[in-house]
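May I ask you to review the protein record following this short note?
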Amino acid sequence: MEKGEGILHILHTNDLHSHFEWMSCIAAGLKSIRLAVQEREEPVVTVDLGDHMDRAQLKTEATWGQANIDVLNETGYDLATIGNNEGLTFPRIKLDQLYRNATFPVICANLLDAKTKQIPPFLKPYLIKQYGDLTVGWIGITASFSSVYELLGLTALVPEKVVAEYVAAIRSRVDLIVILSHIGYSGDVEMARSIKGIDIILGAHTHTYLAEGEMVKNTLICQTGKFGEYIGHVTVTYDKQTKAVQKMRADCLPTRLYEPDKKIEEVIERHQERAENIMGEVITSLKYDLPVSWEEESPLSNLLAAGLRVWVDAEISLVNSGTLLFSLRKGKVTRKDLLSLCPHPINPCRMKLNGRQLLVILEEALDASVIHREVNGFGFRGKVIGWLSIDGAEVYYDKHAPVGRRIKRVEIQGAPLQEERLYTVGTIDMFTFGIIFPMFKQGTENKFYLPEFLRDVLQKQLQDEKELQKTAHKRWHEI
């Protein structure tokens, strides 16, 4: 380092999704880097960009995220923002309590309490802190799923607009502005292009891997991929006298290069034991097997479809059997079994579709390419989409007929389907994106049910003997 130069180090992680198997190595890497730069008397900050938690993982689910908080604390994080997995998958009361034991501040500028119109008490919109000779402004933002956040009593503002307002407000008071962003790569690029005054965007959400960062205009964008496979290290060199940034460098360091941190391993092991006890609770005892198939209609997926229809009070329900990862055997079923069976942070929803739109969806559901399609993201933690399970309807089809004409007859609630009539349809939030069945995007009057997940629906069904007896009733009839 030349005389008169200063260096600030920023270490960052994103989208760990409760991959605890990497966390002890991440902690070791972060501590090793911090120790090395502190010996040179250079300041260092450690931040997380959200989606550290994932309720599909046993320890997170059992402890309502406190296992993650303990790991973050012990690792030595200085600052964090929240991702959609923290913001949207926890009931509001649990979200309000989530960071009560955190030893670091959590910043997010674009979430407001719907009643008070203020930032919730567990969040701050931004922070200004001094590191050596450099004053840094940190602004946090998360993905704006506005209609869903409303159900949790939160208002999600447009992140880019909020960032522009805060950058304008604090730019004159700081030497460097860093955005902790959980809005995704394309949103980060757009911010860099359109908002003057941002020096660094540390990004998340889209699991983008930028090995050496990416310069867009005068802004350095950084992301480290997903699941803790890499640690991000940004080095900012500046003039001590003028505080002007001279250069910025971004690196992604493989987590596998570091030996596990023993203290983190102890924290994780302690929470694993606790989680096993909590999730060992028996929710029901089955008198017979409940198989599931991803390639044809099956009892367990019928049970889920029936429960979904009743849960949202719909005339017909549609859900893919791929949301169920294995069959249930006769005997005890625990909360742990249910989590393993249906781990997705996917919510029930209700919409209206007309008969013609339903016919298109049912026809497409017979395509082998749909049944065997692999999907990543959108909350799905399974392998393939699987068979489309239905309830409230009877479908008669000829699989040998030409594509587009395989559905021969559909009855809904015992009456012939009417193409122009609107039907209330129970389904899952993942389908509303139209990634599998585009016709779902044309649904109207969408209503999402939060904070319940599909496994909550399934648990209720598994405890109802009358519902269990209906699972063998066929809904799809080959002719």
Residues 141 and 380 are 24 Å apart (CA to CA). The longest strand covers residues 230-239. The mean pLDDT is 96.
